[in-house]
């Protein structure tokens, strides 16, 4: 059981370049989300999705796009990378999302993508 | 505005002793709290949680205490083991609302021999 898989693990971009961070889960989770982790800031929610075709903004959505065409995949797109987007990015999924159902706590995280924007 | 705060960036504890990690929150609407543990180069993993209807939840060596009046929760690890060395994040949410989990800034625990 692979769980939540993120690719790539590391990426270096130049300012202005675009790229897509991939996230896939094989647990049939409806809820998927993207977080970024920065020193002294903890984990901040970028975007989330409660099911295929449904996405919503989190705390820090600017500069990022998401789509959810399938239950399994939730890619994060950087449209025009900026040095402020240098961070570690985590994808997470759960059955019904934090605060919903009987699985409030069960967020499963991927191992992260370390992104540097020069 | 940091709604969930972990004021101690790091903590060092001897093996066998108790580790106490603290977390404060400002949003009185939060009614469910969680602790996640993170090792280097890995994603966070769920550790333990507590609902606001309780003031204590225990799971093996891990106990979480909640003081609603003080808007404070703490994670106790007894006894501490070297494998507990990790970054610990507390998180909070409002149940039944849009799916947003608010994390604290994390505390790095080092358990020494």
Distance linking N and C termini of chain A: 36 Å
Give me the count of strands of chain A: 11
Total helices of chain B: the number is: 0
Number of strands of chain B: 11
Enumerate the spans of chain B where pLDDT stays under 50 for 5 or more consecutive residues: none
Overview of the structural elements:
The complex is a heterodimer of chains A (118) and B (113). Chain A has strands at residues 4-7, 10-13, 19-25, 31-38, 42-51, 54-57, 64-66, 76-78, 87-94, 108-109, 113-117. Chain A is mainly beta and 118 residues long. In chain A, strands 2, 4, 5, 6, 9, 10 and 11 form a 7-stranded mixed sheet that branches. A 4-stranded antiparallel sheet of chain A has the order 1-3-8-7, with no helix packed on it. In chain A, a hairpin with a 3-residue loop joins strand 4 and strand 5 (42-51). The radius of gyration of chain A is 13 Å and the shape is globular. Chain B has strands spanning 4-5, 10-14, 19-25, 32-38, 45-51, 56-59, 62-67, 72-77, 86-93, 102-103, 107-112. In chain B, the strands form 2 sheets. In chain B, strands 2, 4, 5, 9, 10 and 11 form a 6-stranded mixed sheet that branches. Chain B has a 5-stranded antiparallel sheet with strand order 1-3-8-7-6, with no helix packed on it. The termini of chain B are far apart. Classes of the chains: A mainly beta (118), B mainly beta (113). Chain A binds chain B through residues 4, 31, 33, 35, 40-45, 48, 50, 56, 58-59, 90, 92, 97-100, 104-107, 109-112, and chain B through 2, 4, 6, 9, 32, 34, 36, 41-46, 49, 89, 91, 93-101, 103-106.
